[in-house]
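Preliminary data (for renewal application), zinc ion complex.
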Amino acid sequence: MGKTTAKSVLVGGRKVAIRPEFMQMAIDTALKGIKKGRGPFGACITDLDGKLVSCAANSVILTPSPTRHAEVCAIDAACKKLKTHMLGRHIIYTTTEPCLMCRGAIYWAQIPVIVYGTNQNDARALGFDELNISDAQFLRIGKRKTAIIRGFMRKEAKGIFWKFRKISGKMY
Ligand SMILES: [Zn+2]
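Predicted structure:
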């Protein structure tokens, strides 16, 4: 795993900035999404230089499809845009700790950096059913040295859940 500080991470010996504006974008995408009936989760993908590639909100109910988590949607959009299935020089910013399925998608896309806001316990506390594995389990069972930045802008990301509850009045 890359050595992490609050705002940067080492990827293959290179110092890469973790930028709050991209987590804010993921949060804004989720907030916009819930007004349109989407789930309260958002994700953005940038390259290691900080260029935005894609943003997506959860669209499980809207599609409808159980695989349309924000992370999978953002990965699909990035791959389509870049015409590749490999995002080995990219960062995924996601408002909530990725579930088992999304960690799988992130792994197969070879994304070397995961940045997340709220954790699985935050989501579970609000009534979401989280199928998850821990960061440690993910790093242990996989072969890649993924850098994981936890709790990045957690408080701001958590605000999505409260807004969702207010707007929809229901949980999944
Ligand atoms: Zn997921």
